[in-house]
Amino acid sequence: MLVDKDELIRKANDPKYIPGIYNYCDRWCARCNFTSRCLNFEISEEQFSTPESRDIQNKEFWNQLSDLLSSTLKMVQEDLEERGIDISNMDFSDVEEHRKRVKENSKNHLLNKLSQEYINKVSEWFETAKDFLKSKDIDLENLYELGVQNIGKEKVYVAIVDAIDVIYWYQYQIQVKLRRALNGKQEEASNPDAYEGFPSDADGSAKVALIGIDRSMAAWGKLYEEFPEKEDRILDILVLLERLRKFSEKEFPKARAFVRPGFDEV
Ligand code: SF4
Description:
Blueprint: H1 5-12, H2 39-47, H3 51-54, H4 59-82, H5 93-108, H6 110-135, H7 143-148, H8 155-190, H9 192-195, H10 201-226, H11 231-251
Helix pairs in contact: 5-8, 6-8, 6-11, 8-10, 10-11
The chain binds iron/sulfur cluster.
Iron/sulfur cluster is lined by residues 21-22, 25, 27-29, 32, 34-35, 38, 40-41.
């Protein structure tokens, strides 16, 4: 069902929800302990709760998303009008040029390259370890079902499946968050007055990336421990992650101290 504009505003003002908690989370709602305090989760559940809407191939999914976009645009339009801002005649060509430059710089940054290398290494590792894992009763194509069927399995087996789940979850997200952090850092540096007094989105995004790196390292550590026959390749990946972690902390020295709404608050 479509959430209308007034309902959206009412919910956004409900103290039950932690403002902005979804901005610096890892989007792993199935493993999140703040679902009851997250407006984003609540809206997704309401909007996409039918079996049909769970299926991203389904027409209803896209229709509902389009409805949500309409109410958001309407809300933004009304807000702009109230503030006397007319964006219809604005020239955005400078902004476009600037954005392109920022994106290009981030793409060429060492952190982006290292995180891409990590993505590739993870894919390669799982590709070559597919049969080996199958011999241990772990079918990568069926990981979700394995997680569900874990009940009653040996602790070690569960821990291995969980570790693989963690690695997969963060494999791409680390790069996405680092790219956002790199873009944000340049934006913040190019117009410091505009960002003065606000928490740094670049540091927040870098923190999410760092958490993904930490958890991935822990997960690889588990595989290293359990699969001595694979330790050389795993060690190689762990060294790469350690470099990524060190360089990320160097590039974003304040990231670890960033306070994420909800997660880092008492
Ligand atoms: S805060 Fe938790 S529930 Fe909300 S979007 Fe993030 S992971 Fe999902």
